[in-house]
C-alpha cells in the first residue's frame, strides 16, 4: 500500500526508592501520536503527524515540587531507508510545552531536526545533521532550553579491519528563564 495510518500509544511510569542523591525523580508519562504515511518510492516515506503527551513529575519539594508538562506537536517528516538502515531523516513542525510548577515559562515555536548519510565511494561515508529543538530542563528555575546543533562526520575504511573517522559538532543552547548567577547564563556555546 502507498498510504497508511498509524496510531501510536505510549505509557511510562518510573519510580525511585531513594531520590536524595541527585536529579532522580518519579514520573508518569502518557501520550498518543497519529501519523499518516505516504510512500513516495521504494525507499522513501513522507509523513504528517500530530502528537500529545502529558507528564506528571514528582520532584523534591524544596526544589520544584511536582511539575506537570503537556507537550503538543504537529509536523511533517521524511525518512529514506536503504538496506534496512535509515540514511536520511528530516522532520519539521510546531511544538508547545506547557508547564505547571517549575519556572515561569512555556515554549511555543517551530522545530526542525534532520540527518543524512551519503556514500562517497566503496569505503567512505559522510554524515551531516542539524537540529533546532526544545527540551525540558531539569533544574527548578528553568522549564526548558532550545538546542541548536550542526554536526558533520566522515568515516573511511582503511585496509581490511580499520576505520578512520573525523567529526565535528557546533551547538548552542538558549534557556527559558534568567538564572541568578555572575556569569552569562542565558546561552552556552560548545565545540567538540
Q: Can you put this structure into words, describing what you see?
A:
It is a single chain. The chain has no helices and ten strands. The protein is mainly beta. It has a ten-stranded antiparallel sheet with strand order 1-2-3-4-5-6-7-8-9-10, with no helix packed on it. The C terminus is likely disordered.
Search tags:
single chain, 192 residues, mainly beta, ten-stranded antiparallel beta sheet, 10 strands, 0% helix, 70% strand
Average pLDDT figure:
83
What sort of overall outline do the alpha carbons produce when their principal axes are compared? globular
Multimeric organization: single chain
Unreliable parts: 181-192
Strand order of the largest sheet: 1-2-3-4-5-6-7-8-9-10
> What is the share of helical residues?
under 10%
DSSP E strands, number: 10
Q: What structural class do you assign from the helix and strand content?
A: mainly beta
Tell me the number of helical segments per DSSP (H or I, 4 or more residues long): 0
Q: Report the order of strands and helices.
A: EEEEEEEEEE
| Span of the ends, CA to CA | 44 Å
Summarize the structure.
This protein is mostly beta strands and 192 residues long.
Give the helix/strand layout:
Blueprint: E1 3-14, E2 26-39, E3 44-58, E4 66-82, E5 85-100, E6 107-119, E7 124-136, E8 144-158, E9 162-175, E10 187-191
Antiparallel strand pairs: 1-2, 2-3, 3-4, 4-5, 5-6, 6-7, 7-8, 8-9, 9-10
Amino acid at each position: 500500500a502507498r498510504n497508511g495510518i498509524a496510531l501510536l500509544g505510549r505509557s511510562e511510569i518510573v519510580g525511585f526508592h531513594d531520590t536524595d542523591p541527585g536529579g532522580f525523580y518519579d514520573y508518569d508519562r502518557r501520550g498518543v501520536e497519529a501519523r499518516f504515511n505516504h510512500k513516495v518510492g521504494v525507499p522513501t516515506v513522507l509523513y504528517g503527524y500530530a502528537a500529545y503527551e502529558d507528564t506528571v513529575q514528582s520532584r523534591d519539594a524544596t526544589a520544584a515540587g511536582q511539575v506537570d508538562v503537556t507537550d503538543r506537536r504537529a509536523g511533517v517528516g521524511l525518512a529514506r531507508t536503504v538496506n534496512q538502515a535509515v540514511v536520511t531523516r528530516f522532520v519539521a513542525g510546531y511544538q508547545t510545552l506547557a508547564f505547571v510548577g517549575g519556572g515561569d515559562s512555556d515554549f511555543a515555536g517551530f522545530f526542525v531536526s534532520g540527518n543524512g548519510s551519503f556514500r562517497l565511494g566503496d569505503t567512505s561515508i559522510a554524515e551531516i545533521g542539524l537540529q533546532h529543538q526544545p527540551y525540558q530542563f531539569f533544574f527548578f528555575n528553568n522549564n526548558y532550553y532550545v538546542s541548536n546543533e550542526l554536526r558533520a562526520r566522515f568515516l573511511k575504511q582503511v585496509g581490511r579491519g580499520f576505520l578512520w573517522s573525523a567529526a565535528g559538532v557546533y551547538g548552542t543552547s538558549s534557556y527559558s528563564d534568567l538564572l541568578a548567577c555572575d556569569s552569562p547564563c542565558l546561552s552556552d556555546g560548545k565545540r567538540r
